[in-house]
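Intended use. Records like the one below are meant for learning the mapping from a protein sequence to its folded structure. Do not use them to infer anything beyond what is encoded.
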Amino acid sequence: MNSYAWALLLTLSILWGATFFFWKVLVEHLPPFTVVFGRVGIAACVLLLVLAMRGETLPMTRAAWTRFCIMAALNNAIPFALIAYGETVIASGLAAILNATTPVFTVLAAHALTDDEKLTPLRAAGVGAGFVGVVVLVWPDMLPGGLTGNLLGELACLLASMTYAFAGVYGRRSSGLPAITAATGQLVAASLMILPLVLFVDRPWQFPAPPMATWASLVTTAVLCTAAGYPVYFRSLAVAGATNLLLVTFLLPISLLLLGALFLHEPITAPALIGMALIGLGLAAIDGRLVPDFRRRSQVEL
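Structure written out for the chain above:
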């Protein structure tokens, strides 16, 4: 990849990594569903404004909104809510590392649900390394007394990664819509899904008014990390390609561990570092980076 592609990937890792950081700040003062609604709702309004400025509107066909709703549930509403809950009990850096298992679950989902993306021995080894990394991460919280709050938060983040995996498999089908239109439709649908939960479960009006820093974090994660993150994502996909885009999953946990340590005083533990390394090794095996590099080095030596 050239320097422009690397710059895009680094930017995307910071934008998406910052989401976990801001969520940790938000859940200190707001309930999870309210945090999710604020993120997707504000981002949807921003992208609707962008569409209006471009003279475009959302399609109103049943097929388009069926896809919007499925992608919104799998790619926004469900995983966002699970991660927001998870971050009420675990560190943002750990949540990001667990989120890096998404490609591992995607490989398994694609093997089960598609005909052209079956497991190979190398990918199976990568999946194994990824799961060992997860075990290393959650093992300290698997106490004899039963499920701890930390473990439930970790399981919620893992379930979010599984949901993202199914979204990735379903999203392989082309919608025929421009990227910004698809993103806007998803965020609008996600907002409509989360709103009843905010009203009947969270009831945020019963909570004390959050400080200004909380409102600033909410607007930032919605506008910068979500509304602005989508164009960077699709541009990265076009420039770097789908395989290289997986590098974001390597970069994102590193960004989060540093942000959490610097600003939230979250400790960087040995299990976190070991688990991140094992998950990274698994991802490298899954996307085939280890073998091509080894072959190239062998050819140079010969």
